[in-house]
Amino acid sequence: AGSGHSDKHSIAHVDGVTEVSGVNKEPVESVEAAAGLVRRAAAARAVEATQMNAVSSRSHTIFMLYITGEHEASGSRLTGCLNLVDLAGSERVHKMGLDGQTLMEAKHINLSLHALEQVVVALQEKAQGTGRSHIPYRNSTMTMMLKDSLGGNCRTVMIATASPRGDHLLEGISTCRFAQRIAMVTNEAVVNEEVDPALIIKRLRIENRELRDELRILRGDNEIGRPLVQIN
Hints:
Blueprint: E1 11-14, E2 17-20, H1 31-44, E3 47-48, E4 56-57, E5 61-70, E6 77-86, H2 93-96, H3 100-128, H4 141-145, H5 169-183, E7 193-194, H6 197-219
């Protein structure tokens, strides 16, 4: 579980994989094991009562599941990452009645959400050809972690939640507008495939031998170059 703070962890992208300092990777071999890690992350998430929510989230949560597989026939290696993200809601300080630690948390949450919105706006403008090419991923830890899930080689789905209460109307409208911007971001997802050069050479040699055998049969030649005898 990651907090809304922008300087808690350092982020690095190594060979296309996002690395977060101070966070351990744990291998999982089943859906149940992965679900157990999700429950652990949810339990570690900070919550605090406010005037609008008795169990208000005081941090964002990001669950990253790396998947690797090998194709038996071709020997190619396929990789992917599933990011499950639960964002803390944008908070209006005067309505939440925040002070002290919760006020500081709200500021960090709002700043990280603002950085996320800046990234989404830049991606939207880039897709429309009306904005600059630079995407400000480095403005926050969260946007750096989600770089591969926003405007990259990925498919992105956002589920927006809004309260039906009239006094939360402005927050609901803001959430819907943000979701609309997310929907306008375009991605071009392709398969992450790596192939060992030695395997490519081996496969090509096998194909070459098979083609030579087929050609020999079609020409009616035996193994030492003499015509095959056909018995009727």
